[in-house]
Amino acid sequence: MCGMPSAETTDVSRQEPEPVQPTREDAVAAAGSEFIGGPLGRRALLGRSWWTPVRVIALVMLGMFALGMIQKFPCYDGSWFYGASSQYTHACYSDIPHLYQGRGFADGLVPYFDKLPGDMEYLEYPVLTGVFMEVASWLTPGSGTIQHQEQVYWMVNAGMLMICAVVIAVCVTRTHRRRPWDGLLVALAPAFALTATINWDLFAVALTAAAMLMWSRGRTLAFGVLLGLATAAKLYPVLLLGPLFVLCWRAGKWRAFAVATVGAAVAWLVVNLPVMFLAPDGWSKFYTFSQERGVDFGSFWLIIQQHMDTPLNTDVVNTLATALMVLACLGVAALTLTAPRRPRFAQLAFLVVAAFILTNKVYSPQYVLWLIPLAALARPKWRDFLIWQACEVAYFLGIWLYLAYTTSGDKHQGLPTDGYQVAIAAHLVGTLYLCAVIIRDIWMPDRDVVRRSGEDDPSGGVLDGAEDVFVFGYAAHPPHYGFHDAEQPPPVNWGKDPRGSL
């Protein structure tokens, strides 16, 4: 009939758009692709061959993780076990073998329930991470020398953490449907490979990445449950509820926020309540240790303290760090409610976690793992990502060389205090730089490489394409509809079409 669209036309209009090709929109990605024969062909980009983005990125992650393990091998045969400074000069230190005996796993002690010899008294990790450590100890044979057991314990943990690494890469790859190749940012991140087996952070990062994937698919309860489990493994994931609250406030999605928050609270309580009631002293050790811990490696507080005659009081630092974090969160909230377009969830998640890292009184080198998946979703631009990664690698090398300097006695091998402070400054400046470009993207949406393809918030779940109901300083705007809904009206004029070029 005249005026009625044909079935063929309707089918074409509803076809899924092609994946974004990073080698066409990113000069650094295009240049880097020459090392592997140039940009991928159309069949690979559309997933019409075995080499789908998920499979390619998972294999790349496995390869990079294996390289990270190889980087630790100079310590495998002795440096971990004799306290040698070579574990610092070779930058291959790991907490995992040291804590096998130091936290009672070699002696069969039960975390949180059995008291440890020495000053620590109890395991100073959240409950779900303690379970992860305990399961790895069950898989470690109790025969042979303690050195052999610690070697096997590290290998067992590395295998379990490798699974977490693949989960992270796959989740990031699938979170932005039209940008699967952004997962390569995670898989190829040098700081990821270097820090993956220092500690157990990857477990919490994997749960958080899975939670972000669930939220992007509109599964708010699953998001909440996974986020609660992640918070039971590491404290930082709970920070994501802050930006989610402000975003749901602006979009009027209170029910989704309530479901996510209740799911997170219930999941956290299910894991923590048994230990909380049966072993309250052991359960609380993580929280009391975090509160009582003084200024430590990697923080700007350490730079300040090293220039003072009298060390800063821990209570004073706690108060000041908390105040700075609160101010940063208020700034993110103000940014969310006044921005010309509602920010994307991944952008705010990165900013809040980065604020926590920047204001905290300690920065362990593996904390960068918290930010890498969020950075790939918030600012998938290779140049900015690699600038930040270069700063993190500089810090990774700096802290081990500084420890080598302090433990080498009169030899003074390594990096002196002033050099280490430069390494700390590199980490701080790199993280602040990435925060700055993300904030610029929020204020100037046409600069956002995710939104310029016509999408609103592909990781936003129920927030994607939702209308604003509460905005400070601007009239509430309709969403920018893109390829995800061809029947919706065109976007309002934001001064520049976000689908245009940078």
From TrEMBL:
<feature type="transmembrane region" description="Helical">
    <location>
        <begin position="345"/>
        <end position="364"/>
    </location>
</feature>
<dbReference type="InterPro" id="IPR018584">
    <property type="entry name" value="GT87"/>
</dbReference>
<feature type="transmembrane region" description="Helical">
    <location>
        <begin position="316"/>
        <end position="339"/>
    </location>
</feature>
<feature type="region of interest" description="Disordered">
    <location>
        <begin position="483"/>
        <end position="502"/>
    </location>
</feature>
<comment type="similarity">
    <text>Belongs to the glycosyltransferase 87 family.</text>
</comment>
<feature type="transmembrane region" description="Helical">
    <location>
        <begin position="184"/>
        <end position="215"/>
    </location>
</feature>
<dbReference type="Pfam" id="PF09594">
    <property type="entry name" value="GT87"/>
</dbReference>
<keyword id="KW-0812">Transmembrane</keyword>
<feature type="transmembrane region" description="Helical">
    <location>
        <begin position="385"/>
        <end position="403"/>
    </location>
</feature>
<protein>
    <submittedName>
        <fullName>Glycosyltransferase 87 family protein</fullName>
    </submittedName>
</protein>
<keyword id="KW-1133">Transmembrane helix</keyword>
<dbReference type="InterPro" id="IPR016570">
    <property type="entry name" value="UCP010361"/>
</dbReference>
<keyword id="KW-1003">Cell membrane</keyword>
<feature type="region of interest" description="Disordered">
    <location>
        <begin position="1"/>
        <end position="24"/>
    </location>
</feature>
<feature type="transmembrane region" description="Helical">
    <location>
        <begin position="256"/>
        <end position="280"/>
    </location>
</feature>
<keyword id="KW-0808">Transferase</keyword>
<keyword id="KW-0472">Membrane</keyword>
<feature type="compositionally biased region" description="Basic and acidic residues">
    <location>
        <begin position="11"/>
        <end position="24"/>
    </location>
</feature>
<feature type="transmembrane region" description="Helical">
    <location>
        <begin position="221"/>
        <end position="249"/>
    </location>
</feature>
<feature type="transmembrane region" description="Helical">
    <location>
        <begin position="152"/>
        <end position="172"/>
    </location>
</feature>
<feature type="transmembrane region" description="Helical">
    <location>
        <begin position="50"/>
        <end position="70"/>
    </location>
</feature>
